[in-house]
């Protein structure tokens, strides 16, 4: 699967992409980057954002450089389909996250019959909040995660929704 935007190629990852295209923030895989990468690739067999996740690589069209990832899938706590993204620090500030989020949001509603897609962002992550807002997501409310965080704390986040236009 491949999505083309003005400046990006957003596509499924392949074995040849490892280790250059690593996603590090899934706790259940801790330091097992190869295991996580293999799990991400295995998710493409079902392409199910309602019960699983689909994570896609984000690459610059002009150079082919890996910029990060974007995807959609079941939120672990809310059990609603959610958009997610992360751009490498050196690739931030160029609008790649918004461009990728807009493309994946459009793709989701072309291929999945869901009423809305959510986005959740830490209350202190202003830049990511702006990405969702530029991508057409509406702020709904503030929430607190009930999942246990390090040191027994709970994290506060902003909850957004995107409703497709008919």
From TrEMBL:
Enzyme class: transferase
Record bears the keyword Kinase: no
Domain of life: Bacteria
Keywords: Acyltransferase, Transferase
Annotated N-acetyltransferase domain residues: 8-164
E.C. no: 2.3.-.-
Record's protein name: GNAT family N-acetyltransferase
The species this protein was found in: Paenibacillus mendelii
